[in-house]
Amino acid sequence: MLLAESNCTNLSRKRRRDGKEKNVETALSVWFAQTRTKNVPINGNILTHKATSFAKTMKMDDFIPTSGWLQRWKERNNISFKRIYGEKKDSDINAAEYWCQWTLKDLLKDYTPENIYNCDETGLIFRGLPDRTLSFKNEIPIGSKKMKDRLTVMVSCNMTGSDKHPLMVIGKRKNPRCFKGIKTLPVNYVVNKVAYQFQ
């Protein structure tokens, strides 16, 4: 409890107001402080889910963690949302605008929107943690080693959205353990031993 009180309290507030569900808020504050000591990323959805779980344990069936309640709880506990590491590299906006206005326009002039498709692949890091977290304002978030388990997913759709191709998922194993007992999939699954190299 000392950890939660020493780190969570917003000392700049003239008067600290306890929330209506004080027991839930106290439990959430202690859990948040303990979890952040392990550098686990936490966002608003995780907090509301945890608060609901505490309320259920305390048999407070009418407790609803609204966005307003969550914001006030964060203010009372001196918590803000921060990026854990890094920033995006600046894009060349002028070059992109020129290409879209002139080069792309010339390439597409002979096609109807129904016949213009976009196809791209993306990595699905299914065990990855968020790169942002709620933390105490005086805390510097520290990242941890990333989980690199991933799949490659290819998406394709025409310009009007009238023809959306099923997702193609590329994995390294022909029969993953999670496929046991599964006869059909809502996606096209293919195997490639170097699937992770698709960036």
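Above is the first protein from milestone M3; the second protein from the same milestone is given next.
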Amino acid sequence: MGNFKNAVIAFLAPLPSIAFYLTFLHHYNTTITTTSSLNPLWLWCSNHPILLANVFFFFNVNLLFWVVGLIQSSHWMIDLYWTVIPVLLVHYYATHPFAFPNQWRSTVVILLTWVWSIRLTHNYFRRERWQWGAREDWRFFNMRKQYGKNWWWVSFFAVYVSQQAYQHNELTTSLTNMQVFLIGICLPMYAIHSVEKQWNMWDSLATLVCLSGIVIAYYADTQLNEFVTRNNTLKQLGSPTSLTLETGLWRYSRHPNYFGEQLWWWGLVLFGWNVGHGWTFLGSLINTLTLAYVTVLVERRMLKQEDRAKSYKMYQKTTSVWIPWFKLSPREATKDKNT
């Protein structure tokens, strides 16, 4: 029953923004005269697409999701909607009155965004054993215990207004807030739909980069899921488990799933650069820097597990961090360190 209730909540959550936006489009499209005859509210919405996206995000995600999280005592929904919001944004930019895109480029980017979202959403539910809202992020769970009775208001800033990571009983603020983060990395979607430039070889290259990122991330996450599932089965049987995943893509990179995800976002940047909006790289740059920081936190957690520390230290010495590369033998790794 709880699973069904959370599914209904998740589907209803974005409806306020969607309803408002469709109302705006209706008023805009049914205005026969010049835009100056529009209601001031609709005129502002038509002239400020990026600001309007931020308003939607603040009220519908930051505020509404926070209230839902307080009622349910779990801020699970923000993780799920990380995979959905880019799809909503790409359709928003494609249908906004300011849009003036090349239809080929627009269609390709929309399809790519759907494929990316389906891949990531599938991985989310596979990790959560196909349940809606079964648990919240481990960081939020730890912060809930730390802040106690103050968590109700702290959570608005810690979970929604700013992302934070928990480490060594301290809160380390990440580089950017959630709203700027998601709006920022999706800025190439705005650029793509604001310039009608003919499709060219750079678009083809950008498509290849995006698809490569999606495929690499999918296989990396699948291999990780199989590894975790196999270890859980062995643990239940009382058999020894594997300490470190070093097969498949994980033989050539310690975080191939992160690498694939970065390829996807930088592929979008290439689309934006090709239409003359190279400045849209800023969102992906911040995303990359943040993910680099997350990588450090993840590896510190690995090294804190006594049974895995020794194995993982060797894995660090022999295997590339992100970019897949040839693996060093333990002897070569030791030799490089000594030299």
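Note on the second protein: The chain has a mean pLDDT of 88.
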